[in-house]
Amino acid sequence: IGQRARRALSGGPVSLIAMRFLHTSDWHLGRRLLSVDLLAHQDDFLQWLLGLAQDVEAQAVVVSGDVYDRAVPSAEAVTALDRAVAAFAASNVPLLMISGNHDSPVRLRYGSALFAHAGVHVRADVGGIDVPVIIRDDAGEVGFYGIPYLEPDAVREELGTGRSHEEVLQAAVDRIRADASARGLDRTVVAAHAFITGGEITDSERDISVGGVGDAPAGVFDGVSYVALGHLHRPQTVRLPNSSTMLAYSGSPLGFSFSERDHTKSVALVELDAGGAAHVERIPTPVPRPLRQVQGRLGELIARADSDLADLTDAWVKVVLTDPDRPESPMERLRQVWPHTIALDFAPEVELVSSDDDMEVLKHVTDPVEITARFVEYVTGSAPDTPTEELVRDVVEELSRRGREL
Q1: Structure pTM?
Q2: CB–CB of 179/130 below 8 Å?
């Protein structure tokens, strides 16, 4: 149900919603989740996205960069995008795509002049920044612009700026403002792939700070009706005080690391009214499996597999083991209860010896075997057992013997 329909049903004030479009980003076609190939699930998402666009009668779909996961994508990833682009073109739903920091602009824009005739518009270089896709609704025209990921050192001469992301983005938006003014466009949508100050990051995004300061303030976009952001994988809105401009990250449609396990993955359904005010509804995407992380001792976790941890059976699981000693064949044992366990870390629960106390004791110790034993206790939290101590003694004696022979 759209924003206008909900307000009408609730008895609240109804404003004219004139333009409806979908905003998505960070598809990362070809990416894996550790050992899991995600391409089939990404293909399912693309088919779902087209169906959604048709169901909500979207007048456009905006893809804000990182279409591929690598600058040189796999043949399978290219085929998946080819299928999606062809399907959108056949459905007459206009598609605006920009390149992200993972994409090769040259590869992504290949065939773009031809694609534009079929309603697929690619913006992957500076020259296309101020070339809008114009879409009409009952209230007039809306200009959809695309700012691809701009590496400052690569574009600063062309844009006449310094080497910060803020400067190159400001120059790009200035070009858009000038074009929109010349065309008499009061409502503008700008797709951009950038790290805007205040956004919440995860550990699956590639740093973009090479070439200067990596983030840029939201104020760069002041005056734009809606800024469709890509790069950050968590769905979120970035606030711009005292401005009608709305900036939002759609987030990635799938989780690419366990730091995203608490995200509700979604695409943004944006409704732009006649005055340029944007309203966003986040529609959850189909997620093949939830991401779950558990921590504890191996035996205790397995014992809970049929009770409070039973829901891990169908999830992709990361386990952090806290056993003082590394258990035997932990991954094999975990997969017997949770078959989709794909990550395993160790964080032993040990009470470390105080370094100050340890150093005070070592002032009075000269036996290398005892010094080594103290080190083992400091690192592991427990004194070495008899076999380990005997091994240390044998090594020390052998080294002493060799030293005497030199």
Answers
A1: 0.82
A2: yes
